[in-house]
Design goal:
Low-confidence stretches: none
CATH architecture of the largest domain: Roll
Strand content: 15-25%
Radius of gyration: 27 Å
Shape: elongated
Mean pLDDT: 94
Structural class: alpha+beta
Oligomer: single chain
Distance between the termini: 48 Å
Largest sheet: 5 strands, mixed
Number of helices: 8
């Protein structure tokens, strides 16, 4: 197996690996922004710049192929200085806000803290905040760093091609459709762009004013039979948000609009949390033809299951297996 040298240590790598792949396989962290393992690489952010012995310039680890005998320095003074400069340039555009300690940190917030970069104060925003009427997504292009993860997530994960890059140079920005609203551009509200956004330029509208959550609980979606998993974000024993869990075996980061945003039924006052049966069924008697239906009585699960199964068994014995039928759905 071929080998390369990373930070003065020798590691194996697989043909076709990039320097970033080899480093991560070796447990060595190289910071990234535009890179995500679910998405195709574009090498646009340059945060993963590393030093290669014999090269005159720093190279992006996410695009540079690993090769036999390559000597890589991931945190050389030159690489660290370049990353810090890039981060300063990214926050120098107007309107980028400082992290509020009462809110969850984004990937970008953590990198700014790691490299001791502080966004400037008093910069006028370049774009309107909350610039789209989507009921699910909050858009603030002032926080966008043009990593294009939202563009690739929409096209590669969801297959909708809603987001794109528009204009050039200093005027470059992400845009829905041909300057349309998200709805007009065909957005399904799946939230994939939010899940992959590293800065909060795209965020869940429902989570805008949420503080740091108490805990996250991994669960399986109840809407259909696919078996998607995600994290329920909980504050004071109430689910306040759903976020993707990258380790979900069926869906990874991907969710549909119902799975990500349709969780309000959990605490709805009309939701039945325990089974109910008619009073005459609970009392074990048949209802007379002129007798009104009895009231619903709340029972525990063992009682409900015993009543249902005993009746099915009775019908089966009396009338045969073809007398029992079921309606079912994906849910």
């Amino acid at each position: 197996m071929p080998q390369l040298l990373i930070d003065e240590r020798c590691f194996d790598f697989v043909d076709g690996d990039t320097v970033l792949d080899a480093a991560r396989a070796a447990g060595i962290r190289i910071p990234t922004l535009c890179h995500h393992p679910d998405l195709g690489d574009v090498g646009s952010c340059r945060i993963c710049l590393v030093e290669i012995e014999g090269s005159e310039h720093l190279v992006p680890a996410c695009k540079h192929p690993a090769s036999e005998g390559l000597h890589v320095r991931t945190h050389s003074p030159a690489a660290i200085a370049a990353r810090r400069l890039i981060l300063r340039l990214l926050v120098s555009q107007g309107g980028f806000h400082r992290h509020d300690s009462s809110r969850p940190q984004t990937e970008f917030d953590r990198l700014l803290a790691e490299y001791e970069v502080t966004p400037p104060d008093g910069e006028a925003p370049r774009y309107p905040v909350d610039s789209d009427p989507s009921p699910f997504l909050h858009v603030d292009l002032n926080q966008c760093i043009l990593c294009s993860r939202c563009v690739r997530a929409c096209s590669e994960v969801q297959g909708r091609f809603v987001w794109g890059l528009s204009s050039r140079g200093h005027e470059a920005h992400i845009e829905a459709g041909a300057g349309e609203t998200l709805e007009q551009a065909g957005c399904e509200g799946c939230g994939a762009c939010v899940a992959y956004c590293p800065t909060g330029a795209l965020s869940d509208r429902i989570a805008l004013d949420l503080p740091v959550v108490d805990r996250q609980v991994k669960t399986t979606c109840a809407y259909c039979g696919v078996g998607c998993q995600f994290d329920l974000n909980v504050i004071d024993d109430r689910v306040v948000r759903v976020t993707s869990n990258p380790d979900a075996p069926v869906n990874g980061m991907h969710l549909c609009v119902k799975g990500r945003y349709g969780f309000d039924y959990i605490h709805h006052p009309d939701r039945l949390s325990r089974p109910r049966v008619r009073r005459e069924v609970l009392e074990g008697r048949a209802r007379q033809p002129d007798e009104p239906r009895g009231e619903w009585v709340e029972v525990d699960w063992p009682t409900a299951m015993t009543l249902a199964t005993s009746r099915f068994v009775e019908i089966h014995r009396q009338s045969g297996p073809d007398s029992v039928g079921f309606f079912s759905s994906a849910k």
